[in-house]
Design brief:
Length: 504
């Protein structure tokens, strides 16, 4: 049996040494052995910042590190051939490849255009009766370095809704191109949150929709991807993504997983968007992340018994991708809301060991963030191993205290040695009597995280489990000799498969 886990395979401050794709290929089998089943890869196409672009300053989506554009052939992460080789190696290791897709905007136009624009109010974009002025804007993308290979489509101002710079006056602002309207089925923050940055792509344009469909087909054929991480979906027409994802899946002839980044902590907003896209994608559970952040900074004042209230994993567990931190929440970034280190193990236990949601681990937590002197979360590999072998069976929650919460998994007979008990605290330590199943009566549950004593399960299937102050404790059943042998045989078969895959 398999518990899926996604790894966000990058962080914002990686060095621009063009080495990430090669590293992914080298790491593939080790990551699979660690328990990961999918990698969310950063945007692979050429950005306006060239070799320094993390990937979100999108310039040319057809240039995967193949053409001399923006001062470089390689992207920050490597070349096209290295990217495709990395995906092939991920597939050999039985890992899904989930590329980051950024369709909201373009940056770094090759030429400017003279147009008329409206000066809209950036704080209330619902006001559309605004002044017209002449402008010079950067909206003509000809991609001279690519010279029409793969696509001869030229992007002009007719493909965009607005920009944030008028070269004629050399002033920033919110400039809506004359004849264009902001899309209505977007987030309602600031009246209308269609515009985010750069040259805002107009997905109401038939020509744009056709080109993005052609590009999506090309990208599927080129990369043999397994799904998408969709950037900034709150700023893009919901009707566009509903149609685009249906088109991509029909073209691929298979189910393609999709998860969207809709940054909003109101569960009703997230549920409303899911309905608008006909439940055609999952969303990151931003409310749960915000709860983790608040707990880590709350000095014990957050009511832990209500941790999952108002979260996506509580309302729609089938469509929730749970996470602790990501590239946007890490220190120094626009959505900084970093979960303090003392609570990281508890937070990861709460997404990796529970029955619901699709957990996503952050590269910066697995490997650390050297530029910020942030170390790796040392408990992560253990938690991933326990998810792989123990996190099965019925779940029972003990969310009955504002500072100490716990849950158990009863395990499955088909997974010998499975089952667990987990506790965490944001205040003083304590104990809970929790049920793990009468099957385990007389069995010793050993503490593998948290430094607590082992617990012998009583005749009613319960044990009294302990946790230290401001910490987490994890208990698993002591393996019987037969279970231990079966697990080692499973691991050996995995290593043999890995060796065969590397020889291929």
């Amino acid at each position: 049996m398999l518990n899926g886990v996604m790894l966000q395979y990058f962080e914002w401050e990686l060095p621009n040494d063009c080495g990430l794709w090669r590293q992914a290929a080298r790491d593939a089998f080790a990551l699979r052995r660690m328990g990961f089943t999918a990698l969310w890869l950063p945007p692979a196409y050429k950005g306006n910042g060239g070799i320094d672009d993390v990937g979100y300053g999108v310039y040319d989506t057809y240039d995967l590190g193949e053409f001399d554009q923006k001062g470089t052939v390689r992207t920050k992460y490597g070349t096209r051939s290295e990217y495709l080789s990395a995906i092939r190696m991920l597939h050999l290791a039985d890992l899904q490849a989930l590329p980051d897709i950024v369709l909201n905007h373009r940056m770094g136009a090759d030429e400017s255009e003279e147009v008329t624009v409206h000066c809209d109010n950036p704080d209330d974009r619902s006001q559309t009766d605004t002044p017209e002025i002449p402008a010079v804007i950067f909206t003509r993308f000809t991609f001279p370095g690519r010279a029409g290979k793969y696509s001869d489509f030229i992007w002009t101002h007719e493909c965009f809704s607005g920009v944030d710079w008028n070269e004629a006056t050399r002033r920033p602002g919110l400039y809506r191109i004359d004849g264009k309207t902001w899309q209505q089925d977007v987030d309602k923050e600031r009246g209308n949150y269609d515009y985010l940055m750069g040259a805002d792509v107009d997905t109401d344009s038939p020509a744009v929709r056709e080109e993005l469909s052609r590009w999506g087909h090309w990208y599927i054929d080129t990369t043999e991807l397994d799904g998408f991480r969709l950037d900034a979906v709150k700023h893009i027409s919901a009707s566009f993504y509903k149609a685009w994802l249906a088109d991509m899946r029909a073209y691929a002839g298979r189910e393609l997983f999709a998860v969207g980044e809709y940054w909003h902590r109101d569960i009703n907003v997230l549920l409303g968007y899911l309905q608008e896209v006909d439940f055609g994608m999952s969303l990151f559970d931003v409310p749960l992340h915000q709860h983790f952040h608040e707990i880590s900074r709350g000095n014990g004042q957050f009511d832990m018994s209500r941790l999952f209230e108002g979260t996506l994993v509580n309302a729609r567990p089938d469509l929730a991708v749970t996470f602790v931190d990501n590239h946007d929440t890490q220190p120094g970034q626009s959505l900084e809301s970093w979960v303090d280190g003392w609570f990281k193990a508890a937070a990861y236990g709460l997404i990796l060991l529970r029955a619901y949601g699709y957990p996503c681990v952050f590269y910066g937590d697995l490997y650390g963030i050297p530029d910020r002197r942030i170390g790796a979360v040392s408990e992560l590999k253990l938690l991933l191993k326990v998810r792989r072998y123990n996190a099965f069976g019925e779940e029972r929650d003990y969310f009955d205290h504002p500072n100490i919460i716990g849950f158990t998994r009863e395990g499955l007979r088909a997974c010998p040695g499975s089952g667990l008990a987990f506790l965490c605290s944001d205040g003083p330590g304590g104990q809970k009597r929790m049920y793990v199943g009468t099957y385990y009566a007389g069995t010793t549950f050993r503490c593998v995280l948290g430094g607590q004593r082992s617990v012998v399960i009583d005749g009613e299937g319960c044990g009294v489990f302990s946790v230290g102050g401001g910490g987490a404790s994890l208990y698993v059943p002591r393996l019987r000799p037969g279970d231990f042998i079966n697990r080692k045989l499973t691991e050996l078969r995995g290593r043999l498969r890995e060796l065969m895959g590397k020889r291929r």
